[in-house]
Automatic annotation (TrEMBL):
Residues 170-224 form the PA domain. GO terms for cellular component: endoplasmic reticulum membrane. Its EC number is 3.4.17.21. GO terms for biological process: proteolysis; regulation of meristem growth. GO terms for molecular function: metal ion binding; metallocarboxypeptidase activity. Residues 329-522 form the Peptidase M28 domain. It comes from the Eukaryota. This is glutamate carboxypeptidase II. Residues 581-706 form the Transferrin receptor-like dimerisation domain. It catalyses: Release of an unsubstituted, C-terminal glutamyl residue, typically from Ac-Asp-Glu or folylpoly-gamma-glutamates. It is an enzyme of class 3 (hydrolase). It comes from Escallonia herrerae. Its main location: endoplasmic reticulum.
Length: 710
């Protein structure tokens, strides 16, 4: 089957044109003339004395919230989801043009970065089941009618090609414990097609573990998916372009070969394909052999009772191609008035496996609406204190490729100038507000949710509108802010590689059309957010967070929250280790960090109370803000995590281990649960070493927060 797209992507020669030199000269001359007239009218005016007052900033924030529009958000989403727009294809380029045009029409300084990266597409797939009674059936791999509408066939990006004729075996979630349970029953997986359901393992980890146990191929399905949907996804290990690990895919730059060992290790060893739950159940119901272990029953249907292998045989075939494709990140920049060299970034990815109404274009619609509201504020006289950057990433679905390449290209500037990165991926998946953040942003996040209303649906006329905070606090979990240790979205390169404080926002815990052909505008308006009230709410929270970070004279960071979080982590770790090794290096480092956090908090309070505009005070605030900004960078270690040196953050990052549910200290967790067999002495030494590394990272953060040399 031919791929549903051409082999090349047009380069952005038209829509990403920069303004002419003449236009820039006229614009600059006009600005200088206006500034000169202002100084003539106010002969004692300076940059400092022209700053907006706190009352003015409050009015601008109130105005921002008052500019919300359900209709505008729904229009943006409708336009973004007219066609499927897989990264590297012409429809994806069209969505980039739409975002670029929107930013430009608003009068915002707009530009784009393009990268040539290695992406992966399917060319053919098929699956048939051959039963003991000699009957055979061809199994459906796509949602009905989806391919005819331009939706890519379900596949796993970067899966190797391969054809297998072998017995089927059920391996539950594909965890090490699941394979151990099968081994205890005498079930042989080697040479079989492993059928597994999606759980807490990444796709890559699930396929790799199957390969380690000798499986010839993998079929993966997701329970609870809408109407026979099939969950597409990537099975690559790590983030970014696999040909440029650690540096950006710039034009004319270095690229590794496809046969390089550093590239090959990123791809699974055996082929895999996603299937619908209905297709998987046809196979699973036909299996014989040992009974499904009791601990696996859970949500399994009653008629699925055996694990195999066989006697059903599967004829599995997948053919794909890895090829270079051009991707486009689009930016709008609102230059800061007083501190243009300090950046507050708001980011969302734009590419989708299919139509992407939830993932990711509910977030894209919110980003476009924030741009609209900011443009109106600018016409009313607002200019941020610090520079705001609105970023629309490409190729996130292939492994955060667009954002990762940009972070790698701008690593030094981000490290020295980025205040925070605010991410929204799937803005609205369903009911309930969820947030993740690095701990110094907890207080700001909570305060902002108290200022944004979440309107009630028309179907519930007797209920009273409440703030996002009030509804959030009323849930069973209460105010819970998750941490960003996973590699779930574009916050990962900013936090885990560059050490930029980050936030991730969304509505709805999960949704049944994830990565399927049913993630459409129709599904959004029918189920997730018919009146776009949740879109309005998340847009308000996102945009207001950025206004505080861009305009507050003293950054609203509270490292006492971080200190308390670190203390809770070490308490959990101490109880798990049960005296196996000493955790005193970390407890001592946390005490230093807490002392620095207290000093910074007291200094912040004093400086916030002083409104006078004098050079000394301005310098004190700037110096404190730099310390608050740089403290997060202290948690980075240049050596990175063991075996995954690209991930530099020692507090938050992905763990290799699937047994542990800890979301902190990934290096220590990996040492506690090693992926290879080691003796107890080696394990203790590895754990102790990682404890010392974390302790040194916390000390570095404390030094940065104090702003003094030892």
């Amino acid at each position: 089957m031919a791929p549903p797209y051409p082999s090349t992507t047009p380069k952005p020669r038209t829509i990403f044109r920069t303004p002419s030199c003449t236009f820039l000269f006229i614009l600059t001359l006009t600005a200088l003339t206006l500034y000169t007239l202002l100084l003539l009218h106010h002969p004692h005016a300076t940059t400092a004395t022209l700053k907006p007052s706190q009352n003015t900033l409050l009015r601008f924030r109130d105005t921002f919230l008052s500019l919300s529009s359900n209709y505008t958000l729904s229009t943006y989403l409708r336009n973004l989801t007219l066609h499927p727009h897989l990264a590297g294809t012409p429809p994806s380029f069209s969505t980039a043009a739409y975002v670029h045009s929107h930013f430009q029409t608003l009068g915002l300084h707009t530009h784009a970065n393009s990268y040539s990266t290695l992406l992966s597409y399917p060319t053919h797939s098929s699956l048939s089941a051959h039963f003991p009674n000699r009957n055979a059936t061809t199994l459906h791999l796509s949602e009905p009618g989806s391919v005819q509408n331009g939706v890519v066939i379900p596949y796993h990006a970067y899966s190797p090609s391969g054809s297998v004729y072998a017995m089927a075996v059920f391996v539950n979630y594909g965890r090490a414990a699941d394979y151990d349970a099968l081994a205890a029953l005498g079930v042989e997986v080697k040479g079989c097609v492993a059928i597994l359901r999606r759980g807490n393992l990444s796709r890559n980890a699930a396929v790799e573990k199957a390969a380690e146990r000798g499986a010839a191929a993998v079929l993966m399905y997701t329970e609870g998916v809408f109407r026979g949907g099939v969950e597409r996804g990537t099975v690559i290990k790590g983030l970014g372009d696999p040909l440029t690990p650690g540096w950006a895919s710039v034009e004319g730059g270095e690229r590794l070969g496809l046969d390089d060992s550093k590239v090959l290790e990123k791809f699974p060893a055996v082929p895999s394909m996603p299937v619908s739950a209905e297709t998987a159940e046809i196979i699973l119901r036909s299996l014989e052999g040992c009974a499904v272990p009791f601990g696996w029953r859970g949500t399994l249907k009653r008629e699925i009772g055996k694990v195999g292998p066989g006697p059903t045989m599967l004829n599995f075939s997948y053919q794909g191609e890895k090829k270079m494709a051009t991707i486009h990140n689009v930016f709008a920049v609102i230059r800061g008035f007083e501190e243009p060299d300090r950046f507050v970034l708001l980011g969302n990815h734009r590419d989708a496996w299919t139509y992407g109404a939830v993932d990711p274009n509910s977030g894209t619609a919110a980003l476009l609406d924030i741009a609209r509201r900011y443009a109106i504020l600018m016409r009313l006289g607002w200019t941020p204190r610090r520079t705001i950057i609105l970023a629309s990433w490409d190729a996130e679905e292939f492994g955060m490729v667009g954002s990762t390449e940009w972070v790698e290209q701008n690593l030094v500037n981000l490290g020295s100038k980025a205040i925070a990165y605010l991410n929204v991926d799937c803005a609205v998946q369903g009911p309930g507000f969820f947030a993740g953040a690095t701990p110094q942003l907890d207080d700001l996040l909570v305060e902002v949710t108290k200022k944004v209303d979440e309107l009630n649906p028309v179907s519930d006329p007797d209920s009273v509108d409440r703030t996002v905070y009030e509804k959030w606090a009323a849930t069973n979990d209460g105010i819970t802010i998750h941490r960003l240790g996973g590699i779930d979205s574009d916050f990962a390169p900013f936090l885990q590689h560059a050490g930029v404080p980050s936030v991730d926002l969304y509505y709805g815990k999960d949704f049944p059309v994830y990565h399927t052909a049913f993630d459409s505008y129709s599904w959004m308006t029918s189920f997730a957010d018919p009146l776009f009230q949740r879109h309005v709410a998340v847009t308000g929270v996102w945009g207001l967070l950025a206004l505080h970070l861009a305009d507050d004279p003293v950054l609203p960071f509270n490292y006492l929250s971080y200190s308390a979080q670190l203390q809770s982590y070490i308490n959990v770790l101490r109880s798990m280790l049960e005296g196996l090794v000493s955790v005193h290096p970390i407890t001592d480092a946390i005490q230093q960090f807490e002392a620095a956090a207290k000093e910074a908090d007291e200094e912040s309070k004093k400086l916030r109370e002083q409104d006078a505009v004098v050079d000394v005070l301005v310098l004190k605030k700037r110096t404190l803000n730099d310390r608050l900004m740089f403290a997060e960078r202290g948690f980075l270690d240049p050596e990175g995590l063991e075996g995954r040196k690209w991930f530099k953050h020692l507090i938050y990052g992905p763990c290799n281990d699937s047994k542990s549910k800890l979301v902190f200290f990934p290096g220590i967790v990996d040492a506690m649960f090693p992926s290879t067999r080691v003796n107890q002495r080696e394990r203790q030494a590895a754990i102790q070493h990682e404890i010392w590394r974390v302790a040194r990272a916390i000390e570095r953060a404390a030094y940065a927060l104090k702003g003094e040399l030892t």
